[in-house]
Each structure stands twice: as structure tokens, then as C-alpha cells.
């Protein structure tokens, strides 16, 4: 019987050729309605939900990139931890590339807190890395736990959007893919001794709470 983390990795390998995000990073047709248009015949409430979802997701990917930048800046030369951080960072770079394209496609205003996300992300990554590789992994564990839950909640909210527009089913699949990536990062952090970090419980609580506050602020602003 496979563990949940092993099962997720096997699923990723099996579906590697069918990643939804490839529609944006390797488009077969740039004029495809699924990646170039946005639903127009939706209610104001649905539009607000769509805007909020993509705004916070884009901001979250910006913050994630800067967290890994901060961690890599401190730990990048370590023979094991450095490449591990780089691998997760590379996935986040792809996430951000896709979210930037989706933000433009759906005409969503970016958060006004973008610079805060960058500075805060780098600071969080660097400070936890300075506490040691276990603390850096604990940071990743806490962040990805919150983000995984956030994406699950978002998928439920997206059920109200009309599937008749081709961009909506694709959007859901992209969110599912990114959720699975984040949960894989969580598994990697745990395997690499996140829970051995000094004051692990306190660190996880503080980082997790900060992520939840950031999500709510970026949804609105």
C-alpha cells in the first residue's frame, strides 16, 4: 500500500504529459478561447469571485517565489538542501508564469500589496533559512499546508462558475495541478525533517497564521 505522498508522486509522473498548465506554457494555438478569453455572461457575484481567486493566487505565487529565493540565497550552496529548494522554486516559477497569463486573460486587477508580498516572502524565506535547513523546511510545510487548504476551498467556490465557457474547466484543472504541486512540496518538507526544527509548533503556527491573513488581504486589495 502506498503512502499518500508516494501516491501523489506516482500520479504526477503518470500525468506529466497532461498537465493543464501546459495549455499556457506550451500552447498549441495562442488564440484558443480557453486561454485567450474570459466569461462575459456571468453575474457580478461570479465575476467578483473569479477576480478575487486569481488576484490572491497570483499574489501567492509571487510570495512563494520570493520565499524560495530567500531560502536559496542562504542555503543554495548546501549540497542536498540547495538543489531541493531549487527544484521547488522552479515549479513555483512556472506557477507564477501561468498565473500572470491568467490574470491578463481574465482582466483581473493585481493586488496592490504585490511589493509587500515580495519583501515579506524574501524575508520569511531568508530568516527561516538562517535558523537552519530544518526551519526552512518547517516554513515550507506551514505555507504549503495553508495553500493546499486554500486551493481546496477555491475549487469548491469555482463550482458556481459556468463550465460552458472553455476557460473555466481549464482554470479548475490548473488549480488542481498547482494544489497537487504544493502538497508535494509539503511532503518533501516533512521528509526532510521539517518537524525537527526548533520550536516547530510555534514556527508553524506563526507562519500559517501569517499566510491566512495575507490571503484575506490580497482577496480584497
TrEMBL record:
Fe cation 1 binds at residues 61, 92, 95, 182. Keywords: Iron, Membrane, Metal-binding, Mitochondrion, Mitochondrion inner membrane, Monooxygenase, Oxidoreductase, Ubiquinone biosynthesis. Pathway: Cofactor biosynthesis; ubiquinone biosynthesis. The keyword Transcription does not apply. The keyword Lyase does not apply. CDD domains: DMQH. Its main location: mitochondrion. Fe cation 2 binds at residues 92, 144, 182, 185. Pfam families: COQ7. Binds 2 iron ions per subunit. Its cofactor is Fe cation. Its EC number is 1.14.99.60. It is found in: Mitochondrion inner membrane. InterPro entries: Ferritin-like_SF, Ubq_synth_Coq7. Catalyzes the hydroxylation of 2-polyprenyl-3-methyl-6-methoxy-1,4-benzoquinol (DMQH2) during ubiquinone biosynthesis. Has also a structural role in the COQ enzyme complex, stabilizing other COQ polypeptides. Belongs to the COQ7 family. This is 5-demethoxyubiquinone hydroxylase, mitochondrial. The gene is COQ7.
Amino acid at each position: 500500500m502506498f503512502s499518500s505522498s508516494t501516491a501523489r508522486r506516482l500520479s504526477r509522473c503518470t500525468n506529466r504529459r497532461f498537465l493543464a498548465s501546459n495549455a499556457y506554457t506550451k500552447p498549441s494555438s495562442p488564440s484558443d478561447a480557453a486561454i485567450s478569453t474570459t466569461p462575459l455572461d456571468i453575474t457580478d457575484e461570479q465575476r467578483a469571485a473569479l477576480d478575487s481567486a486569481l488576484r490572491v493566487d497570483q499574489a501567492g505565487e509571487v510570495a512563494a517565489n520570493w520565499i524560495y529565493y530567500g531560502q536559496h540565497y542562504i542555503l543554495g550552496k548546501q549540497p542536498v538542501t540547495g538543489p531541493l529548494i531549487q527544484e521547488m522554486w522552479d515549479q513555483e516559477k512556472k506557477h507564477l508564469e501561468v498565473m500572470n497569463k491568467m490574470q491578463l486573460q481574465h482582466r483581473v486587477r493585481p493586488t496592490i500589496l504585490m511589493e509587500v508580498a515580495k519583501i515579506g516572502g524574501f524575508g520569511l524565506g531568508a530568516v527561516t533559512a538562517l535558523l537552519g535547513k530544518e526551519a526552512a523546511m518547517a516554513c515550507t510545510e506551514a505555507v504549503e499546508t495553508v495553500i493546499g487548504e486554500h486551493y481546496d476551498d477555491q475549487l469548491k467556490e469555482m463550482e458556481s462558475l459556468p463550465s460552458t465557457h472553455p476557460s473555466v474547466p481549464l482554470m479548475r484543472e490548473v488549480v488542481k495541478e498547482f494544489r497537487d504541486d504544493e502538497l508535494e512540496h509539503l511532503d518533501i518538507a516533512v521528509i526532510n525533517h521539517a518537524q525537527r526544527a526548533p520550536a516547530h509548533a510555534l514556527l508553524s503556527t506563526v507562519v500559517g497564521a501569517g499566510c491566512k491573513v495575507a490571503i484575506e488581504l490580497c482577496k480584497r486589495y
